[in-house]
């Protein structure tokens, strides 16, 4: 008799808000999936509760449910036995109340997917009894005392940059502060700051574009098409740099500044540049032209450093 074939198909469940996804969540999921044949991760969301969590946090912007879903998808990409589902908890009493309504809604999702759980994994000892009561299956605790990874989403929400190493790699680009240096010698200061913060500097798309045009011996006057190409190249480089940026990313210019250059040249706005302004909001723009003419380089450097540091606390 094939004992392995006769063994019951093990189906695991994990619940969480993943607000944001962190190493503790990943450890929970990885240890759980090593014990079952398939694992279903239930991502809970509720508009008012999620907004309240954000308003009480120190996160720079609110992650929405699609962001959190994408973080999970990206982290476990290609893992065909890990399945992620979104659970809308609207209308259900807030935890620790509402267990009956909440579990019924979870069961509705599982039934549609023809999933029958055999075990639930959790790091919360206070939930074990209710899981057993409402789902009628085994419950296994994983790292309940946070001995392996001592972190929580609450800690990260309160101090995301102090807890940066714990934020999931897939979630980090969402939290990276984008800082633009405009005016003056636009390459010098951002390179210095990027070196200090051990992060990425996105070189100026305008300079690179002009360089390539000059190499082709073409006329250097910028057309409207040139501006759009510069902007799109800049956006592409920012997207690439965000993946590996360490808390902050430096560049020049921001898209609002580039759009102002465009409007000055062509006396009208551009829909593509407006879209890029909205899609890539910058957390800080340092205009070196605002510094006093007689201010020393070291004074400018120290002022800029304080402005950047304030973004991370």
From TrEMBL:
Organism from which the protein derives: Orbus sasakiae
InterPro entries: Cyt_trans-like, NAD_biosynth-regulator, NAD_NadR, P-loop_NTPase, Rossmann-like_a/b/a_fold
Name of the protein described by the UniProt record: Nicotinamide-nucleotide adenylyltransferase
Gene3D superfamilies: HUPs, P-loop containing nucleotide triphosphate hydrolases
